[in-house]
Design brief:
single chain; alpha+beta; 5 strands
Length: 145
């Protein structure tokens, strides 16, 4: 079981592994998290997964996306329900239909899901694939002398 967070006052938990994170989640969030994790691994087989801020972040060259369930708080109270899939460079993704939310943020864009049925799999895969291409392009720009 996760230990109460003593280091980070902004969070209600302090996980030491992905398994501990998954064990903490209520069943409805766990189902969505596992579905989104599998979607990400299907789209990006060589992606790395690491806990940051007590939630899974996915990276190749830089952070591509993260999964943040509403039950893992940032602050003292829950600010949304369901599970948030966020894109680190979301502001650069093609989103003519406004599927992703920025809500005043400059960079990170996301979409919240309460049930697997809420997920438009093909559309979400397109965003993930575009985020991978963007990650590759941004890494090449940084490597040039």
């Amino acid at each position: 079981m996760p230990k109460p967070s003593g280091k980070t006052k902004m969070q209600n938990v302090n996980f030491h592994s992905i398994e501990e994170f998954l064990a903490f989640l209520p069943p409805d969030e766990l189902e969505v998290v596992e579905f989104l994790r599998q979607l990400i691994y299907d789209c990006i087989p060589d992606v790395g997964e690491k806990l940051s801020y007590n939630v899974p972040y996915f990276k190749r060259h830089k952070t591509i996306c993260f999964i943040w369930p509403g039950s893992v708080l940032w602050g003292k109270k829950q600010s949304y329900t369901g599970v948030r899939l966020g894109f680190a460079q979301g502001h650069l993704l093609t989103d003519e239909m406004g599927y992703l939310k920025l809500e005043g943020r400059k960079q990170v864009a996301w979409r919240d899901f309460e049930r697997i049925e809420d997920i438009d799999v093909e559309l979400l895969q397109a965003y993930v694939y575009e985020a991978v291409v963007l990650d590759e392009e941004l890494s090449r720009v940084k490597r040039k002398p």
